[in-house]
Design brief:
Layout: H1 5-32, H2 40-53, H3 65-86
Length: 107
Amino acid sequence: MRTDAPARGRDRTGELQLRHGRRLSAYIAARLGPDHYRQADAVSRQVWQVVRASPALIEVSADREFTALAHVARQVLVRRYLAARSTPTWPPAPARLLSTTPLGVAA
């Protein structure tokens, strides 16, 4: 049984982060657009968490590493978009009704 696999995965993630971190952040900022580019750091952190959790996602040749990272970034962006979109903002909470007396006068 191999016990060094998780350690090698973390080392590989660190290498990838050094090699592609700035480029990935720029890619994410460009995908988010001018109105939401400030969220790029939070999205980048989520991408690296996903990569650390399952390093097999990026077990590709050296020339395709960024492509694999960009794919993970797109998946994270889609999940964030769907989570934000599925949070209902409309209709607003119903207005509180005034209690009335039997004659229809607000109490």
